[in-house]
Design brief:
The structure is a homodimer. By secondary structure, chain A is an alpha/beta fold. The first copy, chain A, has 2 domains: 2-109 and 289-309, ATPase, nucleotide binding domain (Nucleotidyltransferase, domain 5, 2-Layer Sandwich); 121-286, Nucleotidyltransferase, domain 5 (2-Layer Sandwich), CATH 3.30.420. Chain A is built from 10 helices and 12 strands. In chain A, the strands form 3 sheets. Chain A has a 5-stranded mixed sheet. In chain A, strands 10-9-8-11-12 form a 5-stranded mixed sheet. Chain A is globular and about 60 Å long.
């Protein structure tokens, strides 16, 4: 058995999982982020709770930030700053006696989808999470590709509009500024002011905009298509560079159904080499809220397998 | 000893190379592209000539097109159409008795730079060849990454200008349409007509434009900066996606010196996560005309090493 923990900005999720990915036990609680000590104590307690007398081989933890896997610590976590520079691996090992392996949360989710979800059968896969931001995890040759410092997968910062608005990353016109939640709202506000729309006076969240577009609102449709085009530029760049065989779309917006997904696939097709597009299949994510904990457990499983082979 | 052959649109180059990459013997001749039979006979004769009584373990061949490595044949070669669908591996094996391994020429050059050139010491490297077109080869974990069908590395078709001109690939505003030779000429012609320039009446090749920019011609400078910006968008996309540690710039334009390269690096910096940019070093290619044959020999070496390990 393995334990997977998934630290989010709001909740800590955890599960005990067997070697086939079956979830035996779950845990879900508000995340303790008042201090590093609170966080570490919560994680250690969660491990002990989920252990529950079973024989657990290792613990994987998915974290919302950049992870230094070799040092088993977090480099930086904008969403949960108490994690910054925290030696999570060492601290949880000393508190629980179990080997601990860390991974970025999007990478862990990608690994879970590759293992048991919409990436099954694909050696190489991009998981794209569409929501407030644009997250991504890349699996190459069946393993998470995290790059030299753990920053790989930042597809949200591909520049899709050279004249676009500044991005907090320091660049401008990044995919996330157009296709992230704020990009949708910004575009909708500007168009409503200029042209009027059934969206006027409503909350301009992504689901509401998709709903209005589906019902024929011209402004909403243009907002959706603008986001789909930007996502098409970014996904096509990944496909033309890597010629991988699977793209999995996750997150709240992706869950809104085929209306947006079909447009994203079509905009990707327009910008991708025909053979490269033909090589790739596009699927909605399958594991939902379990992806993080299942992927975290898989990280521990894979690391320990690799250790045995050495 | 290994033999490396590099089939170009105009010349066939070949060399006999030892396990340390030292070139023992060279061959350079116009490529026989009148018929598939001429091509195969020329390749087999080149192998026999370079073998020259030495003990040769294997042959690597770099080809200008998409290579199906598993089937050891060319899929498609726009530059040398007689190669289309040609089972080069099997045919040269039957004519020479030596094991033959094929690779795309840009990928072979990337492998050579990673082994003995500007990519030394880097596990992960992008080779970008700037010339008439924009070529690229990607080395991940010390091995060529060619993707599912051999199309990986098509960074020239990342869309950098949503309103740009159509590209033969079917998309529009691709990096190659802006930063390839035709993009430079097109931009220079439009600006010269509108504003005048010291370039007026001259051949608008890339080196002449770089030279005029270096001497302060405003139009030439703008053409160079436009190309550098587009390349910055493309390289930054690769870095933010993969967080790799080396970018090597090759080709005639890159050989024109630091004036252009410095601008490309600066435009990349503006669009890349600071840590990801800091993780990467940028270098001009070192192997020049030998990269193709050395890389082809290395392909054979690596494939046979891998075979032994199985």
């Amino acid at each position: 058995m393995f334990i997977g923990l998934d630290v989010g900005g709001t909740f800590l999720k955890g599960a005990r999982i067997d070697g086939a990915g079956r979830v035996a036990d779950r845990l879900h609680q508000p995340v303790a982020k008042a201090s590093p000590q609170d966080m570490l104590e919560q994680l250690a307690t969660a491990v002990r709770t989920l252990e529950a007398g079973e024989s657990v081989a290792g613990v994987g933890i998915g974290l919302p930030g950049i992870v230094d896997r070799a040092a088993s610590r977090v480099r930086v976590s904008p969403a949960v700053p108490v994690l910054d520079a925290l030696p999570v691996g060492e601290e949880i090992l000393s508190r629980t006696g179990l080997p601990v392996f860390l991974e970025n949360d999007a990478n862990a989710a990608a690994l879970a989808e590759a293992w048991l979800g919409a990436g099954r059968g694909a050696e190489n896969m991009l998981l794209l999470t569409l929501g407030t931001g644009i997250g991504a995890g890349l699996v190459l040759g069946g393993r998470v590709w995290s790059g030299r410092s753990g920053y790989a997968g930042e597809i949200g910062h591909i520049q899709v509009d050279p004249d676009g608005v500044p991005c907090p990353c320091g660049s401008r016109g990044c995919l996330e500024t157009v296709a992230g939640a704020k990009g949708w709202t910004r575009a909708a506000e500007a168009m409503i002011a200029a042209r009027g729309s059934s969206l006027k006076g409503k909350d301009l969240d992504q689901r509401a905009i998709i709903e209005a577009a589906r019902e024929g609102d011209a402004v909403a449709l243009e907002v959706v298509e603008r986001a789909a085009q930007a996502l098409g530029v970014g996904i096509a760049a990944v496909l033309d560079l890597l010629n991988i065989e699977r793209v999995v779309l996750a997150g709240g917006v992706a869950a809104a159904g085929p209306f947006l997904l079909d447009k994203i696939v079509d905009e990707t097709r327009k910008r991708t080499y025909p053979q490269v597009f033909a090589d790739c299949s596009f699927r909605p994510a399958e594991l939902g809220g379990d992806a993080g904990v299942v992927g975290a457990a898989r990280v521990a499983m894979a690391a320990m397998d690799q250790g045995r082979l050495r």
